Amino acid sequence: MTAAVPVARPRGQWLSTLARQRELSLVAILILLGGLVTLTAPQFLTVANISQVAVLASVIAVAAVGEALVVITRNVDLSVEATIGLVAYGVARVLELHALDAAGAIVLGLGLGLVLGMINGLIVTLFRVPAIVATLGTLSIFRGVDYLIAGSHQVPLAGLPEGFTDAARDTFFGIPYFVLVAVVVVAIGSVILRSTRFGRQLYAVGSNPEAAAILGIPSRMVVFTAFSLCGLLAGAAGVLWVMEFGTINGTSATGVVLAVVAAVVVGGVNIFGGSGTLAGAALGALFLGFIANALILVGLSQFWLQAIYGVVILVAVTADAFILRRLKRANKRSGSR
Amino acid sequence: MAPVKGQPAWTRLVARWETLLVVALAGLVVLGTSLSPFFLTLGNFSNLIAALMEVAIMALAMTLIIVAGEIDLSVESMAGLASAILGFLWAAGVPLEAGIPIVLAVGALGGLMNGLLVARFGLPSLVVTLGTLALFRGLALIVLGPRGVSDFPPAFTQLGFGHVAGTLIPWPFVIFIGLALLLGIVLHRTWIGRHIYAIGKNTGAARFSGLRVTRIRVSLFVLSGLIAALAGIILTSRLSSARADAGAGMTLTVVTVVLLGGVNIFGGSGTIPGVVLAVLSVAVMQNALRLASVTVEVQSIALGLLLILSVVIPTFAHQAKSAVDRVRGGRPPPADSVPHGERALP
What we know:
The structure holds 2 protein chains of 2 kinds. Chain A has helices at residues 10-20, 22-40, 47-72, 80-96, 102-125, 131-150, 177-195, 197-207, 209-214, 219-245, 256-266, 278-298, 304-336, and strands at 154-155, 171-172, 175-176, 248-249. Chain A is mainly α. Chain A has one domain: ABC transporter involved in vitamin B12 uptake, BtuC, CATH 1.10.3470. Chain A is globular and about 65 Å long. In chain A, 50% of the residues are buried. Chain B is mostly helical. Helix content of chain B is 72%, strand content 0%. In chain B, helix 3 (53-67) packs antiparallel against helix 11. At the A-B interface, helix 6, helix 11 and helix 13 of A face helix 6, helix 12 and helix 14 of B.
């Protein structure tokens, strides 16, 4: 049996490579797509354009990393856009009122995000409400609070302290700061997932909750932590949102959850939980960012964007299920031999 | 659940949930009357009910979907797509007699797409319908763009805006009651309904018992798409305007109404009468909040809380009940009637 295993799967081999190397295939598709778009719109491949896309994608990527943590535990957080919106308005308003300096406002934003994430985590773990219902509810509640405190007020760019939005445009040896932030978040998160007890428990809870419980893994604590971190990262995305856009009102970041979930799904995080990488989720965000940019450069209207997000989500989950099914079949065949 | 012998407690619990709703409804009516003398007038009631009918008829189809253990988040976008296509066709000179059937067919097709992806490919309905939530809204924007179409003939706007001749009963309410009767009979009095409960309770067992699980699931999604398109038509008629963003945010209210009606989010239990009661309760609640001049923002907070509470309260009531039973030394509850708090959606 042990001798037969290495030779027996010529068919499942490329499929499993494809399934495992989602990051690689994404990069390949990106390069192919980039080439095609460059043919029709040469400005696509300029440094200015690419760094502009990467900066915006970094904001989504930070939120997508948080969402990936939750999805790996076989849950979902639909309230991220409301968290981003509420944190963005809170930070911008505090700065406009000169209540805190820039550093204080950033800490406030991160703290607010963490608290909102903890609320989600508590509802899901302590009150045992399924994540979809809990976060659909908090999506409405957080957004309602956002509208309530914002009213019709809009914080203008001039209301922010001078230089606050520079971070979105400044670079460090040619690399935008936002991209560095996203890379650092992905790096820290990946190390935690790969090398700490919490990281392994996250995968265990997502891939087999019953087995995880038998092993004595505190699954509720793990899920709670995942939601809290998701809130914290959504808070970070909210702070980045203020720096990127400058003008913030109560409706900021509406509809962003679709981009975040699409990034996670495209990035190869299994929607059934238990597998996926944070780098994949971040690459997914970059992928969507380039698609959005290419659309505009090719001359399609902005309205196509939403439809394309939908198609991307559907294609990604269908492809995942297809690959998984073929893999299982191939494994079964080689196993029975 | 009914066939389990010696366990009338569960059926009584369900009955009590509906009783609770009636009590809540009565309480809200009393509260509303104390807020404003106009609260109980027929004119007011007819207005408050008419404004919720699109949500209400989508909730009926959603009830069957959730009982079968699935969810359809795309209904609000399908309503928007229906509105956009109707407006586009009317602006292009297609008569409504042709336009409405086309829109309904698009609704059924969209539902078929959801159904095939969920039932054939075995994908989770949550993600599939999140994808079509984006896709259908995107298509609506592509079809109609940011403009609105509003020169519909009076005969059409009468559908959403008018009343049955000589009374104050709005036409959408008639459609809602008709659909509630139809789907109520299908769910509670036919083999189709029993199969839906069986699938929601235990899909594997249902399949091994020879039930046509795939076919029923696909049909339910087709029904949901069709009804969402109908809701889009009614919405267009009531506002006498077709817009691509019609119905945005309605899914939340639809799911809230269904869960408030006592339908178990994990599938396998729930009733149409419960959901009808929940529709009336939410209508009265929204009206009471409006009369108390509570802002729309606070209403959306209240709705979110209501959604979460409608899952929390039954779970805790059940736990409290089994705790009391344990203290009294009674039988433990059957394992399958315990709400699976930590189980993820299929």
